[in-house]
Amino acid sequence: MNPRLDELHPYPFQKLAQLFEGTEAPEQSPIALSIGEPKHPAPGAVLDTLGASLQDIARYPGTQGLPELREAIAGWATRRFNLAGGGLNPATQILPLNGTREGLFSFAQAMLSGAADSLVVTPNPFYQIYEGAALLAGAQPYFVNSTRDGGGLPDFSAVPAGVWDRCELVYLCSPGNPNGAVMGLGDYRHLLELADRHNFLIAADECYSEIHHPEAEPPLGMLEACHRLGRDDYRRCVVFHSLSKRSNLPGLRSGFAAGDAACLARFLRYRTYHGCAMPVHHQRASITAWQDEAHVDDNRMLYQQKFDTVLPILEPWLDVTRPQAGFYLWPRTPMDDETFARALYNEENVTVLPGRYLSRTSDGVNPGENRVRMALVASVHECVEAAQRIARFIERRTQNGSS
After folding, report:
1. Which residue in 242, 207, 168, 156 sits closest to 328, CA to CA?
2. Rounded to whole angstroms, how far apart are CA atoms 170 and 162?
3. Regarding the domain delimited by 3-41+295-400, which CATH topology (the fold level of the hierarchy) does it fall under?
4. Largest CB tally within 10 Å, which of 218, 220, 252, 335?
């Protein structure tokens, strides 16, 4: 039995289930804001392609993926991140993934040395896959609190040089989960300078990059930052994207890694043995998704409609702000975050995720304490109903003096 399995923390949703043990929700309909699973309709054209490609289930898929898929991804990334003149080579700089979760985890297994003192630097709060990937690859996670300037970005300038010397991999998440914070060009420049100086890799999780205000500038990604900085070989950098959030296709399990060709060549070798090739019919459906932006525009409009209607209901009762991007709210709670989540479930049948389940104590601070994550993934009607229940819950607690 692998002893490193004992180092893994319970997953956040396992903790949430344990928190609710012994309590009973009221009979009103449940509304889940706890998990970031998109509930908008899947694009019809993608489903049509998937159905028309089912005969490909009789074929073994290649680990590197169809050339047409890699070309579609390269085209999308070049358009989205303004890479003209420094675009991606579909043959060497792109690998299909079974979603970003699988790719982010397996990347660490392929890239880390296994040295006893190696570190993986991760933002805090964080997607728990980063921590688990580090631990199972024989490294230790080093948590950087995402509180810089109050904007929710990890404060990499506060990391000691000795930590950077031991660091082999940095996980980024921009737009951030759960706070929606977005890195700027100066942030990327600083981290790239550190990577060159201390010889570590960067894995940029950008699965929320397409969920932003319809009229706002799209979030800057690492590929675009590298291009602007003259690093068109994307050395030391691999980005991870997915159709789960962008296209409401979490069950398709489709994404990609792109960037440094040398890293991806090693990653491809690992994946050939790992047995994680994407089914061919999923690849063909993915081509349709990456080549269409109309459904993505519609998706953004739905999320903004939810922010526009939910925030005015919550703002009188919670310290909450609209995120720069993504579909989460990350409000402070008027009581302990676990108490808030358990009582809200017990009294209003609304589930939210306690912030401490997404973070660890670092430098004496747990940046998730007294916050909860709310995923606005349900319908507009359900999100409004959930916000009204939350407001009613807090008002009732305030009047009773129990907050």
Report:
1. 207
2. 15
3. Aspartate Aminotransferase, domain 1 (3.90.1150)
4. 252
